Amino acid sequence: MAAASPPPSPPHPKRPKMSSSSDPEPEPTSLAAAGADPGQPRRRYKRRKVAIILAYCGAGYQGMQKNPGARTIEGDLEEALYQAGAVPEADRAAPARYEWARAARTDKGVSAAAQVVSGRFYVDPPGFIDRLNAKLAPQIRAFGYVRVTNSFNAKKFCDRRRYVYLLPVLALDPSAHPDREAVKASAGSENQLAKCVECSERGRKVPDIMGREGKLPDSEEEKVLDTPGEETVASHGELGDAKSVPASPVTETCDGETRLGGDVMIDIPSSGNGTEAQNAELGSNGAGKFDIEPALGTCDSEAVPTSASETICSDSTLGSVDVVASVVAEKENNFEPADSEKERMQAINIQKENGEESPLLKNTFAYTDEVKEKFNRILKHYVGTRNFHNFTTRTKAEDPAAKRYIISFTANSVVSLDGIDFVRCEVVGQSFMLHQIRKMVGLAVAVMRNCAPESIYDVAFRKDIRLNVPTAPEVGLHLDECMFTSYNSKWMDTHEAVSIEPYAEEAEEFKIKYIFPHIAAMEHKEGAVALWLHSLNSRNYPDFRYMETAGSEAKVGAEVENMEEVQMPSNNISE
């Protein structure tokens, strides 16, 4: 009888696909070496379909979407997921393999307080969020994650998005930061405006303000600008023929308001638009001059404010201008460049000695009920299904993607950040295109400042009309919430809701620590919105006068098209 064969040895345990740490443990040579019960196989981790809720400050990043050669939020996040052990080596830099999706695609410099991304990740063992945050920069924070269905996609299942744009209150004042033509139009009237003394840009194009790169002066231009007693001054937002006017000393600051200083809570790198560097060079050449500069045209016949009490970068009476101008003229020949803050205080002291209040300290414009009612009426033009081909780039009017559904657009509250008052403009829509929100805000501000008539909205959404619409600076915009109403309602019995509500307190703390200080700092340091306001004129945007040239035909055509268009939600989803 043959001897019985020995029992087969147990199979060797397989190594898990991915450990929860960045350095996987070496494979044990035996079950005993692994410290496990020989009767039980070693535990293997599985990928889970999850939605991650996070926030970030967009300063220093070229937007959310991954772009080769650029620093993006998505690029840093993908690498952090790999370093945290959520993505295997084989899938590194290949997001399609783990079903990566984002709920919103933010522009360069735009922040988010409640972004959502989804995919299949290794989230075990516990502590996944802590491991992920340890690999991320401080200005990118993950709050938590929820398990979702296998078919979940953050982009497709997000049925609405809410953005908030914080706009300085003074941006709505027609007399704050006026352009050269508005100053000329008001000459000789009792509501005469003075040239803006807060901005040192002196008429050159600012990169990213007009959508085209500015041109820094060469050495010959600098010599001309530094000529004592005379300065070449061009209109803000224009690179055209400049006009030489008498020079006079002035204070130099780019604050969003007429206030002295203001502590900055946090110093975050700028978005790289070159404005700060340009301002630094301009400051070395001297500041802008305090005078009423003549011009060649007007922004609009309605550009003159209706009340002298509504001026910030202006004077309610000609007396205030004459007081400063006369004193400045006496010192013109002996003018030496001085510290801007020192000059500011000297100008203030001069007027105090004459018993007059400095216009630099005036701040009579406020977001009153009347102003709020008008601004909300203007924003309401965007509500509904519209063809927004004039409010984006690279999208033709015939493209179905140009139609977007805006649920609401309101501006009902004011927040104060580091001494500057901001209007909270809140827009909720199904989806948005590139630059759409910034262009909607830009045109609304132009209408509020009387640079364009409100009737321009009669043609702004027409397919057969192409308008050049101003784009507001990106710094004030942030994604406030991504909503998954339909998904949460359908799967409420089996899955957790995808919502920012459980992390609302953490999100608010992040905004206070990173997003809000960055917005205020950009206004104090660079005056992003203030410089942009100087570009709002009919020379840079000839389409502001479209209704004057087109006449009643354009209005009739707009009424016919609005009657044919059905007001229903669009299925196009972009961001």
Account of the 3D structure:
Residues 208-225 have a biased composition (Basic and acidic residues). It is a single chain. With 575 residues, the protein is α+β, with helices and mostly antiparallel strands. Among the domains are: 48-158, Alpha-Beta Plaits (2-Layer Sandwich); 369-480 and 513-553, Alpha-Beta Plaits (2-Layer Sandwich). Helix content is 27%, strand content 14%. It has 16 helices and eleven strands. The protein has helices at 31-34, 73-83, 128-134, 180-186, 219-225, 275-284, 318-331, 340-353, 369-379, 436-448, 457-460, 485-490, 504-525, 528-533, 546-550, 552-564, and strands at residues 48-56, 101-102, 111-121, 140-147, 160-168, 230-233, 243-246, 384-387, 403-417, 420-429, 477-483. The strands form two sheets. Strands 1, 2, 3, 4, 5, 8, 9, 10 and 11 form a nine-stranded mixed beta sheet that branches. A two-stranded antiparallel sheet has the order 6-7. The radius of gyration is 29 Å and the shape is elongated. Mean pLDDT is 73; it is low at 14-40, 201-341, 350-362 and 570-574.
